[in-house]
Amino acid sequence: MPSLAVNPPTPPAPVVTQPQVVLDKQFQTPKPYTGASSWQGYREYFERLATVNGWSTTEQKTEQLALALEGPASEVLRDSDTSQPQAYSVIWEAVARRFGSLDGTREAMRRFGSRRQEENETIPDFEQALRTLHREAWPAATPEQRDAALKRRFEDGLISTEMTQFLRLHARDLDFNATVIKARQFAEATGQSKPKQRVNFIDTRPKSPAQPEWEPLLNGFKEMMTEALQPLQRALRSQTQGNAPRIAASTPPQSRPATPQLNPPPRGAWQNQQQRNGQGFRGGNANQSGGTSRGFFQP
After folding, report:
1. Which of 169, 168, 143 has the alpha carbon at shortest distance from 156?
2. Low-confidence ranges of the chain (pLDDT < 70)
3. pTM over cut 0.70
4. pLDDT value at position 153?
C-alpha cells in the first residue's frame, strides 16, 4: 500500500513595509524691498516666490508682502487696510504710484532707445538689461518683433566698435540669441570679457595744516597765466618802443654855453629906479601929447 506523506504548509512570506519619506519643504523668506530697485522686477520675483512657497491665497500673499516692505516702501502701508479682500492689489498700486513713473511705458521706451553698454558692464548683463526694458516698454510685442528690436539695439549699443562691425558682418542672418553668443565669443577671443579695473592714485603726502587746500591750485593758476601773458607783454613792449618819438642827441656837457650869472643890484638902486620910472612915465605922457619922440626913461 502506498504511503501517504503529508507536506507541511509553507509559511507566508513576511511583508516588508518601506518607511515613508516625508519631504520637509523649506520655506523661503522674501527679500526686503525698499524702493531702490524697480518695483515691477520685484513684483515678478515675489510672484515666483509665492508659487514656490505655495502661497495660493491672496491673504497669504498680502501678509508676506506687508512684511517684505521696508524703509520708504513701508510707508505705503499706512493708507492701506491689509484686512480687505483687495488689499494685495491695493498695495501694489500704492507701490507703483510711489516708486514708478507717471508714464512707465513711455519712460521704458525712451530708456530702451538710448540704452548703451556701460564701461564695466558685461555682455550678459547688457543683454538682460535690454530684455527687461523691452518687456516693460512693449509687453504685447510678438516674438519676431522683440527679437528684431533687441538685436538692433544690442548691436548699436555695444561699447566696442570692433565688435559692432564684427556682428554686422558675421551675424547678419542670426537671431538675437545667436548674436549674443557671437558677441561673447568675440569678447573672449579679444580679451574684452573681463571688466576693466580702474586705478585710482591717492596722494598720501602729509598736508600742512597752515596751507589751505586751494593755495597750490591758485599758485599753479598764477604761473600758467604768467606764462600765457609773456608773449603778449613782449609784443606790447616792442610796439610801444617802435612808436615812441626819437629824442635828439643832447649836447655834451663840455660844449654847452655857460649860463650867465646875474649879480644882485647895489643898495638903493631900486629906489632910484622907481624915481626914474615915475619921471619916465610922466615924460612919456608928455611925449605922447607933444608928439616928440623921447625915451621912456629919463636919466
Report:
1. 168
2. 1-25, 102, 193-214, 242-299
3. no
4. 96
**Final residue in a domain of this structure, among 190, 205, 230:** 190
Cα–Cα distance, 209 to 227 (Å, whole number): 30
Distance CA 75, CA 62 (A): 15
Residue 261: inside a domain = no
Number of domains in the chain: 2
Q: What is the pLDDT of residue 222?
A: 84
β-bridge mates for residue 69, sequence order: 33
Q: What is the 3-state secondary structure (H, E, C) of 112-145?
A: HHCCCCCCCCCHHHHHHHHHHHHHHHCCCCCHHH
Predicted local distance difference test score (pLDDT) of residue 83: 84
On whether residue 223 sits in a domain, the answer given is no
* CATH code of the domain containing 121: 1.10.1200
- Domain with 61 in it: 39-99
Report pLDDT for 156: 95
Q: Judge contact between 145 and 138, C-beta under 8 A.
A: yes
My answer on whether 186 and 108 are in the same domain is yes
Chain CA centroid to CA 182, Å = 33
Q: Are 39 and 96 in contact (CB under 8 A)?
A: yes
Which positions ≥6 away from 75 have C-beta within 8 Å?
98
pLDDT of res. 115: 94
Q: Which of 87, 84, 86, 85 is nearest to 76 (CA)?
A: 87
Does residue 78 sit in the same domain as residue 145? no
Q: Does residue 69 lie in a domain region? A: yes
What pLDDT was estimated at residue 107?
Answer: 86
Domain assignment of residue 252, yes or no: no
**Do 104 and 110 form a contact (C-beta atoms < 8 A)?**
no
Query: For residue 294, what pLDDT is reported?
Result: 46
The whole-number pLDDT of residue 41 equals 87
Sequence letter at residue 79: D
Alpha-carbon distance 171 to 151, whole Å? 10
Q: How far apart are CA 270 and CA 110, in angstroms?
A: 109
**What is the model's pLDDT at position 214?**
67
